[in-house]
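Aim 2, interim progress: modelling of the zinc ion-bound target.
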Amino acid sequence: MDKKPYIGRFAPSPTGPLHFGSLICALGSYLDAHHNAGRWLVRIEDIDPPREVPGATTTILHQLEDHGLVWQGDLLYQSARLPAYRDALEQLQAAGLTYHCDCTRQRIVSLGSIYDGHCRHRQLSAQGAIRLLTPAADCAHASLRFNDLVMGDYQQNLATQVGDFVLQRRDGLFSYQLAVTVDDLFQNITHVVRGADLLDSTPRQLYLRQLYSRECLALPVAQSAAPHFAHLPLATNAEGQKLSKQNFAKPLLKGDEANNLWQALLWLRQSPPRELQLCSVQELLDWAIPHWQLAAVPKQLNLPAPSSY
Ligand code: GLU
Ligand code: ZN
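Predicted structure of the complex, ligand included:
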């Protein structure tokens, strides 16, 4: 039995306004939290200034409010958490778990993006990126396994499928993997409901979480029990690409909120009754919270968005 109170989150990066795909993640995480009488937090993942769009955070927050997706507690901005990431990195370094790497992007792409540990023993100091050592392929700790609440059993060997991964980039920015792991622990997140594009990041986060709790928080692994994960299908465009700013996903339009929620509920196979179609945002959410069924969400990595999105 899970006795910890449910704490979920939506963690947008301010790279542009919400589109149908990001609404799916916001709505899915919101409904799952409220259905389970949990708290729903919003964390702004603004740790990559070159990718950020001025004003996007404000736009996203207004879009959430307009869809009735109101968060509890204070917003957490990752840009205010840099000392925590630095501290985590320093402690992992002090434990001998990291090394510097000056390999070019081109070399890593030529390896099929699975890093081969080339710089492990080169003793580079203070240049390039900082990578985390992963266990040898045949070591029991290299193989990570979890039961995703949507996608089911998922297994990955960090050594053969990922390799030593980056904690701090060559430009000094902290990696998504480090920041998300430190913050999910810091916020006591018990349930991570997000897009299936992050399914294959989860083993890295589980591994880092174990090391971070041990080296930085001096917690026995049992006390930092991993959160539950639920990865929702990715909404794709007519060409089968993930909706994103890069491929010109349409921002959600102001005034269409109730219809957006209706379409998102249908897309998540929640079967809202027909008479709700012309109802308000609040009426839709009031129906959707008690009727939410995670088990009805399609177990598919990709699913086309409705054609109007
Ligand atoms: N900030 C990430 C994104 O917008 C999501 C991170 C997460 O949910 O773990 O893709
Ligand atoms: Zn290298």
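The chain has a mean pLDDT of 94. The radius of gyration is 20 Å.
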